[in-house]
From TrEMBL:
Keywords: Hydrolase, Manganese, Metal-binding, Protein phosphatase. It comes from Bacillus canaveralius. It comes from the Bacteria. InterPro entries: PP2C, PPM-type-like_dom_sf, PPM-type_phosphatase-like_dom. NCBIfam families: Stp1_PP2C_phos. Its cofactor is Mn(2+). It catalyses: O-phospho-L-threonyl-[protein] + H2O = L-threonyl-[protein] + phosphate; O-phospho-L-seryl-[protein] + H2O = L-seryl-[protein] + phosphate. Transmembrane segments: none annotated. Residues 2-242 form the PPM-type phosphatase domain. GO terms for molecular function: metal ion binding; protein serine/threonine phosphatase activity. Its EC number is 3.1.3.16. PROSITE patterns: PPM_2. This is protein-serine/threonine phosphatase. The keyword Metal-binding applies.
Length: 250
C-alpha cells in the first residue's frame, strides 16, 4: 500500500481551512482523511484541525482491523466521539459558534477498504471496472438532483451549490455514510475536498489518477489543474494505491 497527502491554499483564499493526512495504526494499516472546515473567524480551520488530530490519535492507538465489520464499527464509534468534541467546543467558545467540517476517510487493508463520509468531500475509485464516485454528497444540490428537481448539469452552476445538509460538529449527533469495497492490487482511491472536485471534470480526475507517474506527481498535477481552472477554494487530496510487495518495494 502506498499513499500521498497534499494540500494547497488555492489562488483566492487567505487561509487554508482544509486538513488531512495518512496515518498508521499499531499494525501498520492506513487511515486516510480529508477534512474541509467551515465557519467564520477561521473556525473552519479549528474544526478541521481538531477533527484530524482526534482521528489520528484514536487510529494510532488502534490494533489490527481484521474485518469490514470492525472497520465500520471503528468509524461509528470514533467519528461520533469527534462530533461531540467539536460541538462542545463550539458551544463553549463563542468565536467558534457554528463551526463544522466535512470529512471523508478510508481505512485500507490488503483485503478491503472502508470509507466513511459526512458532507461533500468525496472518495473516488479507479479499478478494472473504471472510474467512479464511491460517496454521495450531503448537500442541498445533490438532494435536488436525487429527487429529480434539477439535472446534474444544473447542479454544476446552482447558486446554493455549497449548502451542506450534514457536517461534522454542527449538531449534537450526526449520521455518516459508511461503505466497504474490495480493494485489490492496482486499485487507486482518491479522497478530496470540493476545491478539487468542483474544478476538475470526472474525465480529468480519471486521466490524472490513471497516469503512469508517482503518486506525488499525480497529486501535484491535480492541484496545478485546480489552480489553473480558478483555484477559488482550498484544494486537498489523498491518493491511496494498492501494489504488491515487489512493486512497492515494501
Amino acid at each position: 500500500m502506498k499513499a500521498v497527502f497534499m494540500t494547497d491554499r488555492g489562488k483566492i483564499r487567505q487561509h487554508n481551512e482544509d486538513n488531512g493526512g495518512v496515518f498508521e495504526n499499531r499494525s501498520g494499516q492506513r487511515l486516510a482523511i480529508v477534512a474541509d472546515g467551515m465557519g467564520g473567524h477561521r473556525a473552519g480551520d479549528v474544526a478541521s484541525k481538531m477533527a484530524l488530530a482526534s482521528m489520528k490519535a484514536y487510529w494510532e492507538e488502534t490494533k489490527e482491523i481484521e474485518t469490514a465489520e470492525e472497520a465500520e464499527q471503528w468509524f461509528r464509534q470514533h467519528v461520533s466521539k469527534v462530533n461531540s468534541q467539536l460541538f462542545d467546543h463550539a458551544v463553549q467558545n463563542i468565536e467558534c459558534e457554528g463551526m463544522g467540517t466535512t470529512i471523508v476517510a478510508a481505512i485500507s487493508t490488503d483485503r478491503f477498504s472502508t470509507i466513511a463520509n459526512i458532507g461533500d468531500s468525496r472518495c473516488y475509485i479507479l479499478n478494472e471496472s473504471g472510474f467512479s464516485q464511491i460517496t454521495e454528497d450531503h448537500s442541498l444540490v445533490n438532494e435536488l438532483v436525487r429527487s429529480g428537481q434539477i439535472t446534474k448539469e444544473d447542479a454544476e452552476h446552482h447558486p446554493r451549490k455549497n449548502v451542506l445538509l450534514r457536517a461534522l460538529g454542527t449538531e449534537k449527533t450526526v449520521d455518516m455514510d459508511i461503505k466497504t469495497i474490495i480493494f485489490e492490487e492496482g486499485d487507486r482511491l482518491l479522497l478530496c475536498s470540493d476545491g478539487l472536485s468542483n474544478k476538475l471534470s470526472c474525465a480529468e480526475l480519471e486521466e490524472i489518477l490513471g497516469r503512469d507517474e508517482s503518486l506525488e506527481e499525480k497529486a501535484a498535477a491535480f492541484i496545478k489543474l485546480a489552480n489553473d481552472n480558478g483555484g477559488e477554494d482550498n484544494i486537498t487530496l489523498v491518493i491511496v494505491e494498492f501494489l504488491d510487495s515487489i512493486e512497492s518495494g515494501e
